Amino acid sequence: xxxxxxxxxxxxxxxxxxxxxxxPSQAAALRAWGVHQNLFAAGEARVATDEAAxxxxxxHPEIPLRxxxxxxxxxxxxxTSLPKxxxxxxxxxxxxxxxxxxxxxxxxxxxxxxxxxxxxxLKTLDEARKREEAELARAQAHLDAxxxxxxxxxxxxxxxATAKVVEARGAYRKAGxxx
Length: 179
Hints:
By secondary structure, this protein is α+β, with helices and mostly antiparallel strands. Helices cover 44% and strands 12% of the residues. It is built from 3 helices and 4 strands; from the N terminus they run ββαβαβα. It has a 4-stranded antiparallel β-sheet with strand order 3-1-2-4. β1 and β2 form a beta hairpin. The mean pLDDT is 87.
């Protein structure tokens, strides 16, 4: 610990113990407890307010002190008492077993023929639609090719027509015509 750094006392419940540690920061407290998750962010650790806990922790800087969960014992390096565990509930006396009811015969298997026929009809419909979509896609590709060819022919014809207009306009102006 660096000389002159101020210690804060932090507390947390870890396992069956209440713990306190005097450390310069929350990160140092987590390291002292040997914890990798941020108990402060989770709300499971906080700054201690109990004066006895603060006094015990500052007497042993950066050493975690603990006591049994919920006890009022003094915090120590090794807890002197064990946590109080409530007694297990008493087992109820077992009731005599009732006579088993005779097993009902298994029902006959359900008739699946209508379901099979409906599934087959659905599969046939889906396959027909896939074939139809493929044929439409081929027809669309053919139309797209015709559109592209028509557009190219139009562009060529328009260039030729525009060239004739430019040539005729030039001849008209040369002959003295005005626009």
